Amino acid sequence: MLGLVITENSIFGNGGKGINYLENDAEVEPPAIIYHDLEEGVVSGQTCAGCEIEILSTVQNEGDKFEGSVRADDFGNFVFKKGKVFSGPNLTAIAIYNKNRTSEFSNPPSSNSAMRAALAMLEGEPTYQTSFDVWEFGGPGENVTIQNGKMILPTEKVNIGQVLSQQESNKFAVQFEFQISETINDGVCSFGFSNEEANRSFGVGYRKNEISHTEQYIHPDQYQVIAEATYDYYDDQPNEGVIIVVEDQISVFVNDQLINSFFNPLGSVVYTQQSVSAEGGVTCEFDNYKIWNLEGLEFDQEDKESQVSQTNWWTCVTQMS
């Protein structure tokens, strides 16, 4: 098939799909919209690495109005912030690869999508919370202390960590404050999740140079970066981190700003403990930790066809990057 690019068009009112390819002709999977906020004008998800993503508002599932575009990063992750309200009432996206291949329209996300439903639950009481006024975390990690209502993790030559809670679920959200008071060689403060029996763990790291990365453990001895983003770091006040996990979907926020949303390439797993860590010559301060166990979360599932496509995105990322 010859390359075909469809860009910045208004496509609507069709009896079938707005963009429709014969089987195996599309070459590019539609993007996956994981997080969206119509009022804030923000949408995020995953697609092919380096692809140009066009965001469109639609009445149904096509592309009535072009809202803007953004390029996916090397991991296939994208965040588009328009700065004003989307026209709505639904959103779709297309991916353009190498300027000559356009995907079909993505499925519009539900108003009760996994991330929207999880955020609504954060308005309620957390399952567990602590302000680090007293020690209640079992045996302390090496050099880990509580001082003035904060958990302090200082590192020099040895990386250290501390378990904070042991909630078992594949659906949860955490919120915490962090500051990086001292750093040598661009050290990292991290929040992590693990299941030792399943040999699964991942962590979101924060550097003072305003770079965040998400790294996953692959048994027996490999670590794989699966997401990276920039964020605004506050020197003069605590920074707030929020991480939401709903099965294989992950969204990361810093200081009320979404920095990325993506699928875990290893899929869903029940995590059994949550922890903080410091590495690389850095002193990390954590405060006001909260966790919501979202085990009973109700949200609209994607249809079967979309779920099958999701399993192909990480392959797409690694092949096209």
Secondary structure elements and their pairing?
Layout: E1 32-37, E2 42-46, E3 52-58, E4 65-71, E5 77-81, E6 90-97, E7 101-102, H1 114-121, E8 128-130, E9 145-147, E10 150-154, E11 160-165, E12 171-183, E13 188-195, E14 200-206, E15 211-218, E16 222-230, E17 239-246, E18 249-254, E19 257-263, E20 273-279, E21 282-293, H2 304-320
Antiparallel strand pairs: 1-2, 2-5, 3-4, 3-6, 6-7, 8-21, 9-10, 10-21, 11-20, 12-17, 12-21, 13-14, 13-20, 14-15, 15-16, 17-18, 18-19
Descriptive notes:
It is a single chain. With 321 residues, this protein is mostly beta strands. The protein folds into 2 domains: 100 residues, Immunoglobulin-like; 177 residues, Sandwich (Jelly Rolls), CATH 2.60.120.560. Strands 8, 9, 10, 12, 17, 18, 19 and 21 form an 8-stranded antiparallel sheet that branches. Strand 9 and strand 10 form a beta hairpin. The longest helix is centred in the C-terminal third of the chain and has 17 residues. The protein is globular. The two termini are 22 Å apart.
